[in-house]
Specification:
By secondary structure, the protein is of the alpha/beta class. The protein contains eleven helices and 14 strands. Helix content is about 40%, strand content about 15%. The chain has a seven-stranded parallel beta sheet, with helices on both faces. The structure holds nicotinamide-adenine-dinucleotide and uridine-5'-diphosphate-4-deoxy-4-fluoro-alpha-D-galactose.
Length: about 325
């Protein structure tokens, strides 16, 4: 199939491109490189020994998308492009709404125009808000308390409306839990700009000596050791989930929603200690106040994806932290 991957140079997109190329798909990437580097795509080609087509363009530009859809006979779109920092979204909400929501609307409009009705969309566990119970199943109530989360919820709703208006659409809404790790080669990985917001890149940068100490946001949660618990999932497992979702779309399922998580939760301290074992060094940390908007614990019930996609996360916490470390030590400054 010819797959258009929006945001394909980014963290999850680049790892997914590897899976798609390895499965023999033709991959067309559109990315404005606002949060990524073209080098990630050169490395994807190096790892797979296959070529992809890259457009350094913005999904907000309808004429550009039309040109791409005119040039290629696209069978399906995987839509990663978006801004993703929760804290930043509260500071510059309009940019988040414009980029994430308007960008998705433009893309969906062009898809409709060209009768391309197969879509995999990057949603997030953030749409579950502060869940009343755990593990989280796909039918849990959804909510959002920041512009980023609201943008994801709204795009999900837009997809539902499109499907209800025209049941020929096939849409997979994938709700990711916490993606971490890197390709086993150490060639591609997560390369955040500036100070990392997320736990793993922060730990990795402390371990490599780029930052002094990890701030742990609260140790008074009702969890095993007081620190926040999350369902960390290896980015290559997540990438494989996208291939399985594409397979599912071929069966014309209509609109489907899947959690992509492992079903296991780990605390901040558990992740930190796992990293220390792999890096064979102590990682300095200190406890600070809770981060606004954080919840105590969040982990998936991944059974629906297992049943309907035949997908299961295969890599464990050790794989996740050792692949993160491998990427970090080989690329201490990220892609440069
Ligand atoms: P990322 O920032 O690494 O990748 C997103 C890519 O989209 C970047 O390469 C960026 O340059 C590109 N982009 C942004 N706006 C664009 C635009 N208007 N036109 C063209 N390209 C544009 O982020 P990621 O971690 O790979 O996340 C991918 C998707 O998954 C995002 O939609 C994100 O919200 C979602 N998601 C991520 C996480 C996570 O923790 N990483 C969790 C849940 C959901
Ligand atoms: N944490 C720290 N110190 C840090 C960074 C994080 O203690 O420097 C803690 C957080 O308090 C939390 C855990 O580590 O308990 C994980 O935090 P992350 O920022 O890595 O991830 P979040 O669960 O807050 O959010 C991530 C993405 C969201 C996405 C969500 C669910 O950033 O976009 O997972 O998929 F919505």
């Amino acid at each position: 199939m010819q797959i258009l991957v929006t945001g394909g140079a980014g963290y999850i997109g680049s790892h997914t491109c590897i899976c798609l190329l390895e499965q023999g798909h033709d991959v067309i990437v559109i990315d404005n490189l606002s949060n990524s580097h073209q080098q990630a795509l050169s490395r994807v080609e190096k790892i797979t020994g296959k070529k992809l087509t890259f457009y350094q363009e913005d999904i907000l530009h309808q004429t550009v998308l039309e040109r791409i859809f005119n040039t290629h006979t696209i069978d399906a779109v995987i839509h990663f492009a978006g801004l993703k920092a929760v804290g930043e979204s509260t500071q510059i909400p309009l940019q988040y709404y414009h980029n994430n929501i308007t960008g998705s609307l433009v893309l969906l409009e062009v898809m409709q125009q060209y009768q391309v009705k197969n879509l995999v969309f990057s949603s997030s566990a953030t749409v579950y808000g502060d869940p009343k119970q755990l593990p989280i199943t796909e039918d849990f109530p959804t909510s959002a308390n920041n512009p980023y989360g609201r943008s994801k919820l709204l795009i999900e709703e837009v997809c539902r409306d499109i499907y209800h208006a025209d049941p020929l659409w096939n849409i997979a809404l994938l709700r990711y839990f916490n993606p971490i790790g890197a390709h086993h080669s150490g060639q591609i990985g997560e390369d955040p700009q500036g100070i990392p917001n997320n736990l793993l890149p922060y730990i990795a940068q402390v371990a490599v000596g780029k930052r002094e100490s990890l701030s742990i946001f609260g140790n008074d949660y009702a969890t095993c050791d007081g620190t926040g618990v999350r369902d960390y999932i290896h980015v290559m497992d997540l990438a494989e989930g996208h291939s399985k979702a594409l397979d599912k779309l071929q069966t014309q399922p209509g609109l489907v929603v899947y959690n992509l998580g492992t079903g296991k939760g780990y605390s901040v301290l558990e992740v930190l200690h796992a990293f220390e074992q792999v890096a064979k060094k102590a990682i300095p940390y200190h406890i600070v106040a809770r981060r606004a908007g954080d919840i105590a614990a969040c982990y998936a019930d991944p059974h629906l994806a297992k049943k309907e996609l035949g997908w299961i996360a295969k890599r464990d916490l050790h794989d996740m932290v050792s692949d993160t470390w491998h990427w970090q030590i080989h690329n201490p400054q990220g892609y440069i």
